[in-house]
Amino acid sequence: xxxxGDALNxxxxxxxxxVDLVTSLAVRRVTGCHLSSSFKVxxxxxxxxLWDGVVSEDGVDGIRFQPAHLALQxxxxxxxxxxxxxxxxxxxxxxxVREVFRRRCGEMQLEIGQITALEVHWESKAVxxxxxxxxxxxxxxxFVFLDxxxxxxxxxxxxxxDVLCVGIPGGRPAEMESFVRRHWALDVWRSERGTxxxxxxxxTYRENAQRKVAQKAARHLPLSAxxxxxxxxx
Length: 234
Known about the structure:
The chain is built from ten helices and five strands. It is an alpha/beta fold. A five-stranded parallel β-sheet has the order 3-2-1-4-5, sandwiched between helices.
């Protein structure tokens, strides 16, 4: 058999380092158990977060999926399958973002069908998060916002202090992979296997969000235009 000392040596750490490692892991688990269950919605940026590059500049075929970005996609996919809601908040053309998911889906760990709602436009991320909160009818303290841009994180933190802002080190791949594995808000350790109810949750919230968007738009449309939107004939 292997003694405790031999095991520590093979791991390349002494006893005190091992204790520090175990303590750190235990603290992360306890923190995750107490707090992560309160987070229902994970809202992520796209450029520099889900992929390397800027789709509006590099084009759909020019962006790159580094292992670190795929690791984040995989973790978000796990969270969605465990019942969390995923949303996108990106300063982009919505058509470009959708094209990435359509044309590059074979390279990705995340599917467009796992996304509950999109806020892809050139307005502020704080505006996007407020809209998502209204559409989903969920409080802002249930939201986690992920972005690689410190300025965007500061703006959201100031405007919406109830939102948990998580800075993704997208430009530092090695650090990002470790970050995804270790950050307590992204921890899936206590998430149970997705049930049929969990799998339907995204679809239900998506339909409700789309209905609210349509109702809001209808209030600003003439009756004739609203009927056309519904494909009805008078």
